[in-house]
Amino acid sequence: MAENRFQAIVEEIYERFKSYGVSRKEIENRLKLLLYEFKVPEEEARRTIINGLRKNYNIVKGDLKPSITKISEIEPNTWVSLKAKVVQLWEPNSPAIAQTGLIGDETGITRFVVWAKANKKRLEEGKCYLFERVVVDEFMGLKSVKVTSASEVKEIDEPIEVKDENAEVEVVGALVSIQQNSGLIQVCKLCGRVVKAGVCVEHGKVEANEVLRLKSVLDDGERTYDLILDEKIINSLTGIGLREARKLAEEHLDRGVVLLELKKRLLGKYLRVKGELRFRTLNAKSAEFYKPRIIEEVEKVLEEAGA
Amino acid sequence: MIRTARREVAKRVFSKEFNASKFKIGGEGEKEAVYVLTPLGLRCNRLFIVGVLLEKEEVKPDSDMWRIRISDPTGAFLGFVSKFQPEALESLADLNPPEIVAVTAKAKLLERDDRVIPLIRPETINVSDFETRDYWVLETAKATLKRIKAIERGEEKLAIEKYNPNLEEFRMTAIQALMKLKEEQSILEKEEKTKEEEKDEEEEKDLGFELDEEIVDLSDFEIGD
Q1: How confident is the model at residue A62 (pLDDT cuts 50, 70, 90)?
Q2: ipTM score of the complex?
Q3: A238 interface with B at CB cutoff 8 Å
Q4: A269 to chain B: nearest residue by CA?
């Protein structure tokens, strides 16, 4: 059995019993004994240790539901169990990642990653799950929950109200960058990931859908937003929809032309965007070129500056 | 997550403030970003500029390294574009100064002997327009005035210690930029009004002329039969 799985079980049990004064060492020793000397199956060993501890410390069964941590309370470098809804799935940018996105409960939202090696059933957007033995880490100040091979994920049939799930914001900023995988691109019919030369990293050779979308960066001088623009919004800003984009690509025998054209029309422009904000990702619901009458604002600033 | 390295914000700063920079900070750890510290305490790694591309000139023949100057109401940014900025290099090829451009660029300090030269390395250059430029000037003036206030409150100790900046001078450049904007706006509005009036007059003249000369036989317009 893998070392990390062993440690995950120890951690899980420890988390549940630590308030009763159980030490990690004690759990480790028992688990080693059962698993390695007596070759007991893992699930049996786990149950036996939990039952044993419960008896030792005189704990009534009802008091010992697997403790569920709220997302607002997760701390880096701990193992936890969560009940959460999959709020959003993003396209993984590494083959080591099976799925990534955001999960939320009534206290907050966090990023999550399911490692490809964890070999889990695919999660679906909008469904609720019990995530057992997941590990919390922190990178560049952002917490994230990792589903590893030691974790269990079960779909649950209870609704979870996610805090601020539909928080809508309005942002004015300059479009300073358009990322790769933008423009007229082909995505896997099964998972929606970008297909390169007809091959999806997850599903191999697949049928692909052609879509028009932009992953860009909106910057207001104070912070940046990863801005996602869909076909409808791209069309409303530039007059280029899926049909026009296909025509352009056919005329030039090159899909890349569409991206070049969109860059020409959008880069360096100020946009006013309304949409849903999750961390830094802004999913645009509507967008327009920002062309305010600036004279009043200029006068106001001058007045404030005492000029 | 792999791609979570935080993207550097593109700061708004006038060339006068940026060009007075002499110090950089950060860059100590291998992955720590380097920032140019301006006299008003702005730490910038990336800039967003809308201004006039005044010059583009190949540094040496066939080097494909271009020196550019981009002006704003307070002065001009010096920039270099080479094969390391492929997107900017491609756009630059199609541009003929003078032209209004929107630029996203990395902020750099070049140290030569005992001189320090602030410059920019553009990532993208795009044709822009006067409206966008005006909004950029407004936004940048606001950001400048905000930095001045922060220094007056005693924040940004490092900038005060390193530069002891002349706040009045920077305040005046921001205010002058706004005044110019105000002037231009009112001229624009007047022009539009005059144009409309002229158009009205011309239409009247037009009409009078046709009636005087009786080129149009009014009887043609009678609805008969």
Answers
A1: low
A2: 0.82
A3: no
A4: B132
Range with the lowest mean pLDDT among A197-201, A297-301, B148-152, B186-190?
A: B186-190
* Type of residue at A70: K
- Type and span of the H or E element at A113: strand A108-115
Question: How far apart (Å, rounded) are the C-alpha atoms in residues A258 and A253?
Answer: 11
Residue A267 · residue A175 · CB < 8 Å: yes
Estimate the share of chain A in helix, then strand, then coil, as percent rounded to the nearest 5. Answer: 30, 35, 30
Q: To 5 degrees, how large is the angle CA A126–CA A132–CA A137?
A: 90
Contacts 24+ apart (CB under 8 A), B187-195: B189/A295
Structural domains in chain A plus CATH codes: 3-64 (no CATH), 71-155 (2.40.50.140), 168-289 (2.40.50)
Cβ-Cβ pairs closer than 8 A, A with B, add up to 105
Domains of chain B: 10-185 (2.40.50.140)
Q: Any idea how long chain A is?
A: 307
pLDDT of residue A96: 87
Q: Is residue A288 helix, strand or coil?
A: strand
pLDDT at B4 (0 to 100): 44
CB < 8 Å to A299, chain B = 182
**Residue A277: CB partners within 8 Å, gap ≥ 6?**
A167, A168, A169, A171, A225, A283
Q: Which of A202, A61, A231, A79 is nearest to A147 (CA)?
A: A79
Q: Any CB–CB contact under 8 A between B5 and chain A?
A: yes
- Among A164, A161, A126, A133, which residue's Cα sits nearest to residue A147? A133
Upper half-sphere CA count for residue B190 (Cβ side, 13 Å): 6
Q: Are B134 and A139 an interchain contact pair (Cβ–Cβ within 8 Å)?
A: no
| Identity of residue A226 | D
Structure token pair of residue B201? 């007059």
A196-239 pLDDT, tens digit per residue, is 888 888 888 888 899 999 999 999 998 899 999 999 999 999 99
Q: Is A305 on the interface with B (CB under 8 A)?
A: yes
Q: β-pairing, A208-219 with A281-289?
A: unpaired
Give the residue among B158, B151, B82, B93 at the shortest CA–CA distance from B123: B82
Count of CB atoms situated within 10 Å of the CB of B39: 26
Alpha carbon distance A48, A38 (integer Å): 13
Q: Which of A11, A299, A304 is nearest to A151 (CA)?
A: A11
The token duo for A224 is 């940046």
C-beta of residue B210 within 8 angstroms of C-beta of residue B221: no
User: CB A2: neighbour CB atoms within 10 A?
Assistant: 10
Question: Cβ of A294 and B185 within 8 Å?
Answer: yes
